[in-house]
Amino acid sequence: MGQMVDFMGATHSSTKRDYTERVCQHDKPLLVEKAMLFDKEYWDGERTTGYGGYRYMPGRWTPVAQALINHYQLSPTAKILDVGCGKGFLLFELMQLLPDAQLAGIDFSSYAIEHAKEEVKPFLQLGNANQLPYADHSFDLVISLGTLHNLTNFDLFKALQEIERVGKQHKWVMQESYRNEREKINMLNWQLTQRTFFRTDEWEWFFNLAGYTGDYGYIFFE
What we know:
- The chain is 37% helix and 16% strand.
- By secondary structure, it is an alpha/beta fold.
């Protein structure tokens, strides 16, 4: 297994969240049911059912893209896959920094693919993380941000094996987790689509179990 690397901390902490609102002021099971459709309400509806409008913000993903390039010393023609790419904003930033890179993105949400950044739409496709439609060892870097925790543990097991299979060099996955009881309760109150609730050491145990050898990172709800 690889090592813990934080590429997301500053980006995650720049957004403010009321961890109790979805539980105390709304019928949260109904919010979850709506969010789990991963359609317009999740991406571009109210904040209570998802992102509250997942729009491209210039510069927001640039530091993450640059950190990935620097850390993994990616070549100008690197082959990069984003598993759970959403609207492709991070891939777009990677395209700006590495215009000759070969990019690919896959996401379970047809709405996200249809409303993706126009410049990267040709590289995106609909699909599932537990059955990636790519040949073995196809990519220099495989990333997955905020996706794996949305899978049940048996699908998560397959998805990690698939990421391992299609990656020939570097891999980095990032998921929501917790280190103490306060972070756990905040995460449970806030989450909408999460299906796997692992503490950090449980995630690392699961990585080993699935044979995943790449790096990993977390976001926490402090």
